[in-house]
Design brief:
P_starv_induced_PsiE-like, cell membrane, Globin-like, mainly alpha, 2 domains, Globin/Proto, elongated, 84% helix, membrane, 0% strand, heme binding
Amino acid sequence: MERFEQILKDFDFTERDIKNINYLKPVMEKYKEEFIERFYQFIFRFPETKNFLKDDATVKRHQDKLREWYDDLLSGKYDYAYFLRLYRIGEKHVDIGLPTHYVNASFNFIRRFFIEKINKEFGLSEERNQLVVSIGKLLDINLDILTAAYREEELSRYQVMTKLEKTLFVISKKFSDMLDFTLVGALILVSFFVLGLFIYDIYQLVMGIVPIEKGILMTLGTLLILWAVSELMQEEIKHLKGGGFAIGAFIGVALAAVIRKILIVSLSAEKALELLSYGAIVLSLGVVYWLLAKKNR
């Protein structure tokens, strides 16, 4: 961890800011319990919070630690011991697998809470502006130290690798990126083919090559596939930006393709058995899609 004096300097946290925090301390003390209550209301909106706060005993310990952090924040004493306590909190977050997104979102709530109470106590004034600036710097420092443990965990994993492991890691990362871009290129190519099929269906319908009823169903089915491919491409672009792999989008394309077949086969009374088999496939894909959607929610 960097020397704490340099961290304070980097964030331009001066003696003036410490005086502002000391001045703010008695004002914010009376809001501590309200902060705890509202903070818990906020974090229990996260889907995975119950995985980390599993029972009443764990919740109580966490609340006690949160009160300690609140008191430390307003203590006006920001030395090496203070920074070490923050870093250990960050390490604990890493150990339990808490997503950094939850930490960042929580600090956004904390910042808004403090600004709300400062506005209530001091109104629109220069004094209020100075207090908001000082507490903002201090919260940014806290967030920086807490997330430093995540950064160092990633670095430590890379540093313990052998030279061969590092080489394989870099090659595999580049190869994975190449495959992702290849997939996007393939999706673009497929989109053109599906667009061509859509135009061909329109052509057959207009020229009377196929019965009007069948032509409309074929066109609607192709349009459904085109929409599904478009959704899949958008999900893959999100994946390239760091998002998860959208298996649900692939299932959506499969559903669209089978539904198109059903629309066409449904016109023929002789293909009842084939229609039933397609129906079973749609049901299976639908169940899988529903399960994935439920898990994501």
